[in-house]
Fold:
Amino acid sequence: MNKDSSNKLNSQSDRQTNNIGNNSLKDTCTAPRNNKNDGPSTMVTPWNVEGQVDYDRLIKEFGTQPINSEIMELFKKLTGEVHPLLKLHYFFSHRDLDFILHKIENGEKFYLYTGRGPSGMVHMGHLMPWMFTKYLQDKFGSKLLFQITDDEKFLSSPDRTSEEIKRYTYENILDIISIGFDPSNTKIIVDTIHIKHLYPIALEIAKRITFSTSKAVFGFSGSTNIGMIGFPPIQAAPCFIPSIIEGRPTPVLIPAAIDQDPYWRITRDVAERMGYYKPAQIHSKFLPSLNATGGKMSSSKPETAVFTTDEPEVIEKKVLGAYTGGQATVALQRLYGGNALGCPVFWYLRYFFDDQKESDERFVRCISGDLLCGECKNDLAEESKSFITSLKRRREKAKDSIQEYMYENEPLEF
Ligand code: TYM
Structure:
């Protein structure tokens, strides 16, 4: 950041506090603090994220660890760099990531494991953990298991039909392949197709988890259907498949947004009793909803997200119509500056497209009133359109390589 803008930034400090200079700009668009007296105004479960998420509070409530400078130093030692999504604290929390990094230091192999619940088309938020997973796969040459929980998404909504889920499974697999995972090191597991590989492990897990634990972790109630109550061990099972494949306890690292953490809590509870390592996690924040101050991009709310299949005109319409942190009029914006920290467009650009210098400059220009929302929206619309256009080309090509990615090469047939 140049000297000028840094001075300008300091002069704005009475309006918006920030730590932009030491890389810890707080994501208050999706992570504003809840008023202590209010109690939680948010809900973060694997099936729903509502309201404004306080990520520091989630670390405390979920009992995870923040990604601190020691972790970043370890990454730097191993890869020679710190990935921007770590530097920007988009990946902000973990469980046992240090354990995995020490294993790597000692030359030991680990598996990556991540997934998708095919409840709709894929949006740009979903791509974030997957792109980071690919980065880790490229850096460390790891094998990757990619689970598609078609069963979970059938069970979790009363209205979704199995026909819809099959279509989304196929469409979502194209997105997954288009990320560019190494085909020789990546296997996609579709629950209803590969259930015979999951079920024996899931049974061992299920036997060790009581209903009262599951109720406390997932919030199940008397009105939850019994399919959902029985589902979590199926998502836990891939954590132990690597140990079975390798014939010895094998470390696993799961990159995902923090909403999936409840699954890993129950898995970690049973892992050592079953003779496996506890699976490690690296948790991301959520790419925010485009049309609100809180919540995440969501497949089931199309107006909140840019989808990988959206046409350029649709992307433009969504982005130009997005909620921003701008003032009501240009004159007020010039006078008071915008609220960059409360603006989904700012965060979306920062995490996805701007480099840190550009983003820091955008921040300063916004809060000082130099920058109007139209410019940011245009930047985001242009970047998103060109990103989605090239992704669509890779999606087309992916149609020819589905078989290659399927677990045990079992065909994608329902
Ligand atoms: P699903 O399909 O809800 O989400 C897929 C992945 O995307 C993350 N995610 C987001 N990340 C950033 N911004 C958002 N707005 C956003 N919305 C979702 C999720 O955390 C997830 O990493 N049950 C899982 C499927 C699954 C899985 C796994 C996920 C099975 N095994 C292992 C992660 C790791 C699901 O429905 O994800």
The pocket of tryptophanyl-5'AMP is lined by residues 46, 113-117, 125-126, 128-129, 147, 149, 152, 235, 254, 256-257, 259-260, 284, 286-287, 296-297 (CB under 6 Å). The chain has 20 helices and nine strands. Strands lie at 43-45, 48-50, 65-66, 91-95, 111-116, 143-148, 186-190, 252-257, 280-284. The first strand starts at residue 43 and ends at 45.
